[in-house]
Design a protein that fits this description.
Blueprint: H1 19-31, E1 38-41, H2 48-57, E2 76-83, H3 90-105, H4 115-129, E3 132-139, H5 141-151, H6 153-168, H7 171-174, E4 180-186, H8 190-196, E5 209-212, H9 218-228, H10 238-248, H11 252-266, H12 272-293, H13 301-313, H14 318-335
Parallel strand pairs: 1-4, 1-5, 2-3, 3-4
Bound molecules: adenosine-5'-triphosphate and magnesium ion.
Residues 5-6, 8-10, 15-18, 42, 44-50, 252-253, 256 line the site of adenosine-5'-triphosphate (ATP).
Amino acid sequence: MNPFVYNSPVRGKDFFNREKTVEKILKETVTGKSQGNIWITGERQIGKTSLLRHIQSLNENYSEKVKPYGCDKSFNVAFIFANVQGCTEEESFYATLWQSLKDYFDFKLTKAATCYEDFINAVNLIYNTKNYYVIFLIDEFDAFVETISFKKPQSATKFLSKLSSLLQEVDEVNGGSKAFSCVFTANRDIKELLNENHIDNRGSGLIVEAVSLKWFTRKQVSELADLYLCDNKIKFSAKEIDLCFGATQGYPYFTQKMLSLMYEAKKNVLSEKEYITLVKDEFGEMFKETIEDWGGDKMPMRTLKKLKDMVEKMNLADAVTKVIARMLEIYIKSKIGI
Ligand SMILES: Nc1ncnc2c1ncn2[C@@H]1O[C@H](COP(=O)(O)OP(=O)(O)OP(=O)(O)O)[C@@H](O)[C@H]1O
Ligand SMILES: [Mg+2]
């Protein structure tokens, strides 16, 4: 059976690499001296959700304690995942965080007047009574900020500045030290998000440690193939790994997709030349459809530029590469309004 995964976040033993990134996130939020926040930037389908889900799975046997800066007590740690893409206003953002806390801790609290107050009450209970320091894993954060700023840029500024002070200290909870940290994922960094959405950056700057997710190296692509094919009769040669890396540059989603195409093609009896032409053509077609599907010129400038760089290095047929490069150029031009 074809073992490669490209339709959903990867889980369990399919989760490959990222050890250093995980370590960095834990150091910043849990094991380091002071509890900070993280902003993870990465293109579409690079593995943001997979990474957060992986960190969430640490809950199963995590014994590390946290001693927040300025506080004498030690706390247990809980990693709480929330996808905020569908939230359309500040209240639904806090309601989503509240719900994910409730799913994990299953508390009973009387409803307050606002979702924000419910959220604060829940954090209070979890921190002061249950003795847990929460690390929120907030997926698709920029999509949410974009949604609220699209309606009214000032509401995004207001929301970010309130969240920013919550992230420094939660006076409502314990009158001093921080009660939780956040790990945000986004398709762009904060500055790009604010600029592209005309959000006033005064007072809206969250204090976060920036982490940029990397594509896989040639060596990692080879290791990924070995991992996924460990129980399989089919194996890829060094030349085939070069073919995959040449077409994908190690972009995680495209890497898995290409390995999958190669796996299927290998089942047919083809000459080497026919095999290479087939997978390159199929990959080129799929690549074109995927970037159209990702929203064309609606993609962040950063992603468009990254894809353009990738296309310049691609080892596909010249005609295919030209079509894709032209398409991206049109998107970039329409984005900057030429
Ligand atoms: N750590 C990983 N190991 C193996 N494959 C990965 C990994 N991370 C990402 N991938 C590949 O990338 C694909 C997309 O992963 P994921 O859904 O986590 O990305 P994402 O950045 O959250 O995407 P989106 O921008 O759509 O939210 C996976 O289906 C898989 O093919
Ligand atoms: Mg995702």
